[in-house]
Amino acid sequence: MGVLNVTPDSFSDGGRYLDTDAAIARGLELVAQGAHIVDVGGESTRPGAAPIAPEEELRRVIPVIEALTSTGVEVSVDTLRASTAAAAVEAGARIVNDVSGGEHDPTMRRVVAEAGARYVAMHWRGIPDPGHVRSRYDDVVAEVRDDLARLADAALAAGIAPDRLVLDPGLGFDKTAEQGWRLLAGLPVLTGLGFPVLVGVSRKRMLAETLRPEATMADRDIATAAVSALAAGSGAWGVRVHEVAPTVQALAVAAAWRRGGATLGGEDSDPSSGDGAQGDGRSDRISLTGLEVFAHHGVHDFERERGQRFLVDVEVALDLRPAAAGDALERTVHYGELAERVVAAVRRDPVDLIETVAERVAGVALGFPGVAEARVTVHKPDAPIEASFADVSVTVLRRAGGATP
Ligand code: PMM
User: Fold this and answer.
1) Is the pLDDT at 119 greater than 60, yes or no?
2) Ligand 1 and 235: CB distance under 6 A
3) Cβ(154)–Cβ(113) under 8 Å?
4) Residue ranges per domain, the chain?
5) Which strands sit side by side in the sheet containing 38-41, from one edge to the other?
6) CA 144 to CA 365: how far, in whole Å?
7) Active site residues
8) How far is the CA of 377 from the centre of ligand 1 (A)?
9) Does 370 have pLDDT greater than 50?
10) Confidence category of residue 232, pLDDT binned at 50, 70, 90
11) Best of 44, 198, 240, 243 to mutate for ligand 1, by most ligand atoms within 8 A of CB?
């Protein structure tokens, strides 16, 4: 996703594309460089930025959206206002990117639902907060995950279809650099919610704080590209960037890397020796079986109302040698914690399919550091099947970074 700020005051590109023609040319340039989506914003969310009138926001973004979408460009509109979102969709935008996650304008979710647009719900606790007063978290990954789950529930309750929803941790929005890095490291926990995740790190202060003090904007773009590749490797659906070209290159090599990973243990390796026999830890596993959870999943109303038993088996692949060498719990997956998080994920909002539950559990398992692969089976032994049967289950096998095993 390429960023197009049609503003005088955005923090890195403010003023460059305020002119409509310059903005349209930039949007086309982003696409030529490989952007799949152009994110058009007319109001800066930079701390201290002055709010603008709704008419001014429309004046800035609508002609640009009309021009870009008329040439077939996929456009998202970066706005807090439902009225701007509706006008943007009318002008051809197919995605609404709301940095308040629907918390700013009470009519936003309904308007997006009615428009049938895709909706990016970003995590942000509130108005710009330069003092980081709102950035106190005990466990930033868990708290942002829980907040995003609530935002997702609210979006779905307003009628936004589950396959139209994208979540975003909101890096730099009332979060310190350290919290931003924790969120990136915890990306699989966020993708474990079962929705695509967008990451916006481009040029942000958390990068500047990590680079040498003399780092330029171009240096930040290189760092952005590196984060894009790593984010893609951790299962991000999209990355929102100002300079598209370096990120496209970085994503290309990240994809090649994942393809290489997908063939490991395949034709290039010697199946007779087996990687476990070589003692490289690749066959190491932790298994948790028969985890019983009472939940309300199913397509029938009575299943939703009454609930029933689900049994979950989880097997995670990770190198167990460091834990064994140091007898160190912190270097492996704490199975108690795994059980706790899996139970919480299965109990969460009801869905129709055990496929969905299994996918959700796999996301949770891949969220533990070091886990390369997760095999999850969800059993529904009391499923409403007329015939006598022993069990029905689905099994999914998922790899970290989204590679298909
Ligand atoms: N960041 C900014 C603006 N909009 N939208 C999403 N979904 N995610 C972000 O991280 C995000 C955003 C601030 O950056 P900018 O002012 O350079 O556009």
Assistant:
1) yes
2) no
3) no
4) 2-258, 285-402
5) 2-5, 38-41, 75-78, 95-98, 118-122, 165-168
6) 18
7) 204, 240
8) 38
9) yes
10) very high
11) 240
Token pair of 322 as six digits = 């460091």
Entry pTM: 0.69
Say whether 232 sits in a helix, a strand or coil. Answer: helix
CB 99 within 8 A of CB 127: no
Residue 270: the pLDDT is 46
CATH 3.40.1280.10 fits 2-258, yes or no: no
pLDDT digits (tens, 9 = 90+) for 328-354: 887 889 999 899 989 988 998 899 999
Cα 243 from Cα 207, distance rounded (Å)? 15
Whether 199 lines ligand 1, by a CB cut-off of 6 Å, is no
Ligand 1 atom closest to the CA of 172, numbered from 1:
10
Q: Which fold has domain 285-402?
A: GTP Cyclohydrolase I, domain 2 (3.30.1130)
pLDDT for residue 279: 67
Spatial CA neighbour of 45 closest among 94, 109, 1, 101: 101
User: What is the biggest distance separating any 2 CA atoms in the chain, rounded to whole angstroms?
Assistant: 71
Q: Which atom of ligand 1 is nearest to the CA of 11?
A: 16
